[in-house]
Automatic annotation (TrEMBL):
Active site: 265
Domain of life where this protein originates: Bacteria
Keywords: Oxidoreductase
InterPro entries found in the cross-reference section: Ald_DH/histidinol_DH, Ald_DH_C, Ald_DH_CS_CYS, Ald_DH_CS_GLU, Ald_DH_N, Aldehyde_DH_dom, Aldehyde_DH_Superfamily
Name of the molecule in the record: NAD-dependent succinate-semialdehyde dehydrogenase
GO molecular function: succinate-semialdehyde dehydrogenase (NAD+) activity
Residues annotated as domain Aldehyde dehydrogenase: 35-486
Gene Ontology biological process terms from the UniProt entry: gamma-aminobutyric acid catabolic process
SUPFAM superfamilies: ALDH-like
Gene3D superfamilies xref list: Aldehyde Dehydrogenase, Chain A, domain 1, Aldehyde Dehydrogenase, Chain A, domain 2
Family to which the UniProt record says this protein belongs: Belongs to the aldehyde dehydrogenase family.
Length: 492
């Protein structure tokens, strides 16, 4: 057990209790010895926990534990694995308030956002409990006769899971749920900003009956060393990564050395299209969700607003009124709708993008609120006249900033919306759903919300095209990512 007092995520997070947390390896909570790092609440800088800083040796031990647990777990009946996942879903649901408090504490997101994330995260466990007993197979006759074709699926092996801080619960269960349902064992490397949610999930899964070694968690401030050690381990056959395109590209090259199976959920630059006949109130409601959920720190966040020129002024006026009415604050303020960004560097980066756009001729058209000084807050900004070569348009903003561009010709709209190497989410609002679907189909995006500002759905395939990723999570595709087909050619 740990070398110091371990708090519980069931307790409120206060400055009084600083948790001390070690890696979860082979069913044990590791003692907190040697190097450690602190986890802070981004709303006010409060230190929440001291966490053991994992290294390559920890990663190797965790992969060893996952390798030892793999055979028995893969051989466990799919129904038995499913029952455990269902129990974990039930525990998450029972404890949603406590888990949401933990997510808010380390990520900063408002309580309503955190509650939404826990509900979404839990659903991956239920969905994959259901999918785990429905893995498809094929039995057939070879067209030339004389042989039978039998195809079944088996788990790919030990999986290294790497997750970001922006949805610390959902990005973890979106991988753990299908991995475990498929019969894989895992080593999760959470983001250093948000390891506490990962620990809470691993503990909850153990309580639900997940055997020792099936889910291991190694936090670190040196992700390169830890993930390198995981990828070098002979039992690790899968890398499932969610994070930035730059890191994803690097890890793909690294995993290529041993031809490891990779799933990549990377960055986005979502176009949000408003057509001339759109219901503008619906478009504004969708824009608020698509832009400001998690203060704009979502891979699916609307990045570029393309509004038809005939409704651009009206849409902007209504959007600005709605944005400026949203209160900022820490998650324990129940009225807060906008939380802090994850850290000071994030605030500086987004502010630099705003300043550069303004220097190039853009106008801030809303009244950004004054922000609390003790956290990493940035008020939402809405801009017009943003040059299309500004970083606010070409890059993933990852903050509460909305550049509004206009369009007139549908072909020109599609060309501009697709003029990016990223292609994760997109959004189209139009009165005529036929034309909305036509625009949606023309977008080079893995997912498009049609008259909706939210695409995330455990039952649907989540993922991007171009440099937004490889493969899909969620839906029936999500479990196939942790399975490999085996084909038997059987002589008649
Ligand atoms: P990031 O790429 O910096 O970090 C993601 C994870 O990778 C973290 O666990 C981090 O510790 C780890 N990491 C960083 N450098 C590494 C290295 N050299 N080797 C191995 N691991 C390394 O991204 P972030 O800032 O945490 O998250 C924001 C990004 O994630 C955005 O681009 C966002 O769009 C993307 N994202 C994508 C999805 C999706 O489903 N497509 C979902 C959420 C976030």
């Amino acid at each position: 057990m740990s070398g110091g007092p371990r708090g519980s995520y069931r307790e409120p997070m206060t400055t009084v209790d600083i948790l001390r947390e070690g890696a979860r390896i082979g069913g044990a909570v590791e003692p907190v010895t040697g190097a450690r790092f602190v986890v802070e609440n981004p709303a006010d800088g409060t230190v929440l926990a001291e966490v053991h800083d994992g290294d390559a040796a920890d990663a190797t031990r965790a992969a060893d534990a996952a390798a030892a647990a793999f055979g028995p777990w893969a051989a466990t009946a799919p129904r038995a694995r499913a029952e455990i996942l269902l129990r974990a879903f039930q525990l998450m649901t029972e404890r949603h308030a406590e888990l949401a408090r933990l997510v808010s504490a380390e990520n900063g997101k408002p309580r309503a956002d955190a509650l939404g994330e826990i509900a979404y995260a839990a659903e991956f466990l239920r969905w994959y409990a259901e999918e785990g007993v429905r893995v498809p197979g094929v039995a057939g006759v070879a067209p030339a006769g004389g042989a039978r074709i039998e195809v079944t699926h088996r788990p790919v092996g030990v999986a290294a899971l790497v997750t970001p801080w922006n949805f610390p619960a959902a990005m973890a269960t979106r991988k753990i749920g299908p991995a475990l349902a498929a019969g894989c064992t895992v080593v999760l490397k959470p983001a250093a900003e948000t390891p506490l949610t990962a620990f809470a999930l691993a503990d909850l899964m153990a309580e639900a009956g997940v055997p020792a070694g099936v889910v291991n968690v190694v936090p670190t401030t040196d992700p390169g060393a830890v993930v390198d050690a995981l990828l070098a381990h002979p039992a690790v056959r899968k890398l499932s990564f969610t994070g930035s395109t730059a890191v994803g590209r690097h890890l793909l090259a690294r995993a290529g050395q041993r031809v490891q199976n990779c799933s990549m959920e990377l960055g986005g630059n979502a176009p949000f299209v408003v057509c001339a006949d759109a219901d503008l109130d619906a478009a504004v409601a969708g824009a608020l969700v698509a832009k400001l959920r998690n203060s704009g720190q979502a891979c699916t966040a609307a990045n570029r607003f393309f509004v038809h020129e005939t409704v651009a002024d009206e849409f902007t006026a209504r959007f600005v009124a709605a944005v400026d009415a949203l209160p900022l604050g820490p998650a324990d303020d129940p009225t807060a709708a906008i939380g802090p960004l994850i850290g000071p560097r994030a605030v500086q980066r987004v502010q630099r993008c705003i300043d550069a756009a303004v220097a190039a001729g853009a106008r801030v058209v809303n009244q950004p609120a004054a922000v609390p000084t003790d956290g990493h807050f940035l008020a939402p900004h809405v801009l017009r006249d943003v040059p299309e070569d500004a970083a606010l348009v070409t890059d993933e903003i990852f903050g509460p900033v909305a550049p509004i561009l206009t369009w007139a010709d549908p072909d020109d709209l599609v060309a501009r919306a697709n003029a990016t190497e990223l292609g994760l989410a997109g959004y189209v609002f139009a009165g005529d759903t036929g034309s909305a679907r036509r625009v949606a189909r023309a977008l080079d995006c893995g997912m498009v919300g049609v008259n909706r500002g939210l695409v995330s759905e455990p039952a649907a395939p989540f993922g991007g095209v171009k440099q937004s990723g490889l493969g899909r999570e969620g839906g029936t595709d999500g479990i196939l990512a942790f399975l490999e087909a085996q084909y038997l050619s059987v002589q008649e």
